[in-house]
Amino acid sequence: MDRMDDFLRLSASTARFTYGAPRAFAFGDEGRLLWFLRSTGPTDPLDSLWVLDTATGTETRLADPRELCPELDSAAAAPPLPVAERRLRERTRLVAAGIGSYALSGDGLRAVFPLYGRLYEVTCPAGAERGAEPGQPAQPAQPKEVPVAGPAFDPRPDADGSRIAYVADDALYTAPGGRISPEDGARWGVAEFAAAEELGRSRGHWWSPDGESLLAARVDESALQRRWFADPAHPELAAEDFAYPEAGGPNADVQLWVLGPGRDPVRLDWDAQTYPYLSDAGWESPGEILLTVQDRLQQHVLLLSADPATGRTRELSRTTDPRWVDPMVPGTPARLADGRMLTSADTPDGAARGLAVDGVLLTGDGFQVRRVAGAHGDRLLIEGARRDPSEQQVFFLDPDSGELSPLADGPGVHSVQGSGGALLLTSASADGIRRVLRSADGREFTPQDFSQAMPYRVVPVLERVTEHEIPTALVLPRGHVPGTRLPVLLDSYGGPGAQDVCAEPRRWQHRQWWADQGFAVVTIDNRGTAYVSPRFTHAMYRGFSDVTLDDQVAALLALGERHADLDLDRVGIRGWSYGGYLSALAVLRRPDVFHAAAAGAAPTDMRHYDTAYTERYLGLPAENPEVYERDSLIADAEGLSRPLLLVTGLADDNVHPSHTLRLSRALTDAGRPHQLLALPGVTHMTPGGVREKIMVQELAFFRRELGLCL
């Protein structure tokens, strides 16, 4: 195969079947408005800003990036993104172009958004203000450009939308107004690398509910090493650099300050030496700020209440774990209407991730809580798994009794958003993705979806195997004749914080394509991966390689015993990021099981990966050198005896290309033949169809090395 086939071309042109699908939903005006982003069709990458009136179901496009930015005409190149926004899109894995994000005012009637460094605001007035009859669609104003001091990043309106905070050149501004952060050489109003990539916090400034003050992060990265990127395809261009927190080295110094016109800045006071990680922050009321801080090894997590007038903090709760405390369930911590505090909590035996109210466990072992979506009347909206970890259901939760009532409980992956009695339910299953909006008065609407229909209806064979009940999935070629032996392609991620074996349909499209090329495609969620249980996840404490590889091998052999058509004498393995690490690890250490590997963006030596991720699981390099040595692949290079294809993007700021190049050099020094595919200008996300082009190369590699007939 020397070029893309129809499926790969379709996948590339539709961004893996995501262009044209509505996303980034947010309710406004107490549930009357549903804001979202969506492009015009399955091959249109440019998202526009839309609003749906929940009284009528009418959709209105409020902002079209092509009208606001003529440079986006197909004949011209898009203008460059501000560096901060480009890097944050990498951190949040955002592939859409055009309007990438927006933020609503407190009343939900106004939105602000950046567009290639420019700042815009648009208003969707309330019914009484627009002079329309009840039930008639809103008559929105045209987007208005707001003058800014420099390329604008992460704009946020205050409660009534009269002022907008934004970041330009690492300084925090308001419009109208001006610079509000001090000129002290630090970065203001942004999330540092560790927070955005590993801790779940992608923002760095928050308006107070009354619009009088701003809570702002001050980030000093002067102690960090610099990482450099040069594009060898364009040697005339200067290299780019950024601050990177490498395992064992310094982290950014992060502080929180309350800023505002006519008042002295106030720094929030906590023991930042002991608890350097700020994983969450925000205003609970004009007189209270809540923040969550963690120690470096993330074994102690504190929820603090801060007085914005004095900066003094007090401890509300403390969560500890001798291994590490898992990230907080999204939607927590939060105060309930009666003032009680809702927090994340594990059941005592680690069988389930749950919720607690004022420290008292509310949910039990039979339910894995994944997200708190908000309140609906006197109950909470909860997403989680009550059956198999590959699925997700939606429930109402009584915060007094802990009673769960199903809202969306069928097969698949269900999620929810709600406000003012309105609910948006999204259900994903083998039959596709369906969204239903239920208005407060009970009517139902379906937000339009212009995305490309998924070519395959895939129903993977899901099984739990070995004594550890490891989730696995098997995808066979369409029309497979039982009794026909198939080479195996293991396609797993295997790392912490992620789940592969999931009933969400987009995950299986490309695996079905691989199967149709003649493979039995196997996916395995070894211990250490997410959403089975805390106990399952924590099995990866102080070591990646042994648990990951042992479980992958044991599960693969168990599947081979159950499915006679799996030819375990021809096993290939492919993966990206941690999955690339697993792939290289497999052929280096278990060549008796794995016969060829394609390893993309592999972190080959965790001593050169970031602090917050690596140290959470492996500890500090100086205190646990043997752990880092055991998990490094460099020393294994001389033992390579199987075909290995290494792939790296030379603009990857997450897993720096030096990881792959170090392993390639060690293999070369040891005289071990291998293949290296280095891609100039390609980032960790492999945008613009690059992933599909890599798949073409991988397919040729596996066909050749596993003896698969064309």
Characterize the structure shown:
With 710 residues, the chain is of the alpha+beta class. It has 3 domains: 1-179, Lipocalin (Beta Barrel); 182-320, no CATH class; 461-705, Rossmann fold. The strands form 10 sheets. An 8-stranded mixed beta sheet has the order 36-37-39-38-40-41-42-43, with helices on both faces. The longest helix has 18 residues, at 545-562. The protein is globular and about 70 Å long. The N and C termini lie close together (8 Å).
- Overall structural class, as computed from helix and strand content, comes to alpha+beta
Quick one: biggest sheet?
8 strands, mixed
The tally of strands reads 43
Percentage of residues assigned to helices: 10-25%
Q: Give me the side-by-side strand order of the main sheet.
A: 36-37-39-38-40-41-42-43
CATH class of the largest domain: Alpha Beta
CATH architecture of the largest domain: 3-Layer(aba) Sandwich
Radius of gyration: 25 Å
Strand content: 25-35%
Shape: globular
Mean pLDDT: 94
State the fourth-level CATH superfamily of the largest domain.
Answer: Alpha/Beta hydrolase fold, catalytic domain
Q: Ends: how far apart? A: 8 Å
What ranges have pLDDT less than 50 throughout 5 or more consecutive residues? 128-132
CATH fold topology of the largest domain: Rossmann fold
* Whole-number total of structural domains: 3
The DSSP helix count reads 13
